[in-house]
Specification:
By secondary structure, the protein is an alpha/beta fold. The chain has helices at residues 27-40, 60-73, 91-95, 123-136, 147-158, 183-191, 208-218, 241-254, 262-269, and strands at 6-9, 44-47, 49-50, 56-57, 78-81, 104-108, 112-114, 117-119, 139-144, 168-173, 198-203, 221-224, 231-233, 236-237. Bound molecules: (5S)-5-amino-3-OXO-hexanoic acid and zinc ion.
């Protein structure tokens, strides 16, 4: 089996310090959380950014400030900025971090319920996002919250509307209103991706570690972090993203799976080595 790529989604757009005081808002806090995750074994950090008061933003300047500051202390890490932003943001607003030419960025693969909200990703929006990423040579991480999102993006790839092989998928399972986090659902998705693709699973809330264990056993990759889950175990808040990553590393070690460094993750994902 390939080594395990761990992604830390350190911040998200929805979680707050009221829910867990360790949720990062400021640049310093974002750097602290990224470093804790990388030190624990994350090869990838998925980033959203906030204003100092916690308001989610897709500001290019704020992304640049955070990316530069993270790379100062974690020079090898793979950063995947969000183009999902927060529910209700416009496509133009969401696309801002692509202007920084990151090696990867998320591309959300369809509209879905998101708790009480609707996360809008219309076909024209997705075609615009795909075009932008092809023009700028950005490798998308295809975020699938629903079973049908996978068919949607595979069709778009066949039509040349989004970057094609090798594709990297992130199956985000357990968002209220979307596909539930079960092993049969994960197997259905994994069985439907083209040969040569790579995949990661994100289990939301209490699904985080069961989905991680399933992916470790199946040969896939794992995302954890405050964006998806604030707890280390039932009723115990995680003190840092690093603690969540450490738990994945412990499970992987028990199951005999080694952890990929950022350089190894770049090779597995088909990214160019860092200059
Ligand atoms: N904040 C969610 C509505 C992404 O990063 O691309 C969407 C999200 C997906 O987090
Ligand atoms: Zn995200």
């Amino acid at each position: 089996m390939e080594k395990l790529i761990i992604t830390a989604a350190i911040c998200g757009a929805e979680v707050t310090k009221e829910q867990n005081p360790a949720v990062p808002y400021t640049v310093e806090e974002i750097v602290r959380e990224a470093k804790s995750a990388v030190d624990a074994g994350a090869a990838i950090v998925h980033i959203h950014v906030r204003e100092d008061d916690g308001t989610p933003t897709q500001s290019k300047a704020r992304f640049k400030e955070c990316i530069d500051a993270i790379l100062k202390v974690c020079p090898d890490v793979i950063l995947i900025p969000s183009t999902g932003g927060a529910v209700g943001m416009t496509a133009e607003e969401r696309l801002q971090p692509t202007e920084l030419d990151p090696e990867m960025a998320t591309l959300d693969c369809g509209t879905c319920n998101f708790g009480d909200d609707v996360f809008e990703n219309t076909m024209p929006m997705m075609r615009d996002f795909g075009k932008r990423m092809m023009e700028r040579g950005i490798k998308p991480e295809y975020e699938c919250f629903e079973m049908g999102h996978l068919d949607t993006v595979l069709n778009m790839a066949r039509k040349g509307q989004v970057p094609g092989a090798p594709m990297q998928f992130n199956f985000v399972l357990g968002v209220p209103g979307c596909t539930t986090a079960t092993v049969p659902n994960l197997c259905w998705l994994v069985n439907a991706i083209p040969a040569g693709s790579t995949w990661t699973v994100t289990g939301v809330g209490r699904n985080a570690f069961p989905m991680a264990a399933a992916a470790i056993a199946m040969g896939g990759n794992v995302r954890v972090g405050f964006e998806d889950n604030l707890y280390l175990s039932k009723g115990v808040l995680a003190k840092s993203n690093g603690e969540l990553v450490e738990k994945v590393v412990r499970i992987a070690r028990e199951l005999g799976r080694e952890i990929a460094t950022p350089a190894e993750a770049r090779e597995i994902l088909g990214l160019a080595p860092r200059r």
